[in-house]
Write a structure and sequence with these properties.
Blueprint (H helix, E strand, L loop, with lengths): L5 H9 L16 E3 L2 H15 L16 H21 L5 E4 L12 H16 L3 E3 L1 H4 L17 H17 L21 H4 L5
Parallel strand pairs: 1-2, 2-3
Amino acid sequence: MRIIPFERRWEELWQPHERDIRGPDGRTDLILWQNVLWDQRGFQVGRQKLHEGQNVTLNGRHRKLVWDKLHFLLARTKKYAEMIIREFPDTPMMWRRLTYHQKTGSGYIMVIDMDRLGRALAEQYGLEVFEWGHIISPMGHWYEDGTHPSEGTLIWLWGNMILEYLAISAKSKLGGDYRLPYFDGWERCHEKFVAWGGR
């Protein structure tokens, strides 16, 4: 697994497309952010490589975050949050709570630590918390990656809720042509994500 810092992803994936995906008023209308899953994956892969072949509990998925990892995660998440706030000072932002995989995800205690840390940090910065990512956990089915909710009524409801928050954040009125772009723009996803595997 390659460790790619968010600063590099920002330059390579976000900035080239920033102008193309702004809202009708020329700015980003809503930011829904989270960083738990890639951090969890990084800790997991690093731990397994560092202690390969050793009979130690450090390899166990059930471990909570130890202090140095928690300290590192907090520092990086704060830097990430402050970058987003600095780049989008007038844009509404929401922290997306983690969706736990109902079978395999329950053993990843560190993921719960990460989710709680992110939630606390979001509240510290005055950001609203999007609870639906957590609420959906025991209710749906998942793709083989164990991360993304699969097709079904819950995922449609989730998508509609995101669009609703997006329209509200842009201060659009109920109904009317001004609201339409937020509910008729699925094809605007660029090619890097349209054919992404696992969905």
